[in-house]
Amino acid sequence: MRRIYYLFALVLIGTSSLLSACKYGRFVWYNFADLNDYKIFPKRELKASTTPFVFHRANIETHPTGTKFEDKEVSFEDFLKETKSVAFLVIRNDSILYERYLDKYEESSIVPSFSMAKSVTSMLIGCAIDDGLIGSVQDPISKYVPEMAKNGFDKVTIEHVLQMTSGIKFNEGYYNPFGEVASFYYGTDLRKDTEKLKLEAEPGKDFAYASGNTQILGLVLERVLNGKTITEYLDEKIWKPIGMEYDASWSIDRKEDGIEKTFCCLNARARDFAKLGRLYLNKGNWDGQQLVPVDWVKESTKVDSTGGSYKRYQYQWWLPTENGDFAAQGILGQYIYVNPDKNLVMVRLGHKVSANWFKEFVRLAKEY
């Protein structure tokens, strides 16, 4: 009996080790994106600034009014609870007007960005062009990743992947263990998986949201940085200059010689996410220092439907309306929403997305 017990234990340990070592094992074990995912992937660290920027707190907190949830009028705080929010910030004129944390989360709690990282990757592409590392958005991907030319990427430009009009074949379904996005999220060889991507449509014709586009941008960035990691470049160009208050991290695909999951997985705190919104609210300028080119911010947040692009999406940023507001967005309803007319930044982090969040942001902005 004891032998059987030990044999079972050995099999269980062996199976667990095998599962943890492969993408399908990760998928079976963790299944779907979760707020604790920053704990399960290897990462590169981002350190807090020694001279952090701190938002002022308004003398009088401005309470958002109630809203509807499932056809019932509820208070805004109940709305946050019902929609599984864990953090919500409203910042105007650099003052925190409203700040709430729920479900045992607090100001210092780490939350993964998920696809909000796409907008940060776009920032870095803009910086790399400004630094002369990348020629222009009209350069073909194959100029920087020659291995992808055989799959048609000599016809796909950097702008195509920024606009999600590349025409790549990519299954964005997280529930499919054999789909590309699950492979990218849980896999351990992102470079190889990215280089293998193929086209299923002509570039520049139609918008089709696919995380593979942003990982292509990550691969381009890695190639032009000449040995510097993407995390190091982020730290140098943005993280330290805007005075982040807390340490953070960017998840990578594997511990040894990994590459950043540029389509997702920047792990930080709500107030520091808000600073990314403040940077773009001020057209890439941080207290007199131009960190991201003005023209890049403009191109990233303008309404444009030419070249097959979607008027609600530009350069990895979402555009909720045609009135100049824009947002970074993640799969579980992570948002950095910016309304320049109101000089307003809102951050919402949570366990699940609500179909009405953009509508709610626009409504709240009008109140402020």
Automatic annotation (TrEMBL):
Residue ranges annotated for the Beta-lactamase-related domain, each copy included: 81-354
Cross-referenced Pfam families: Beta-lactamase
Signal sequence, renumbered to the chain: none
PANTHER family: BETA-LACTAMASE-RELATED, BLL8153 PROTEIN
Protein name stated in the entry: CubicO group peptidase (Beta-lactamase class C family)
Organism whose genome encodes this protein: Sphingobacterium yanglingense
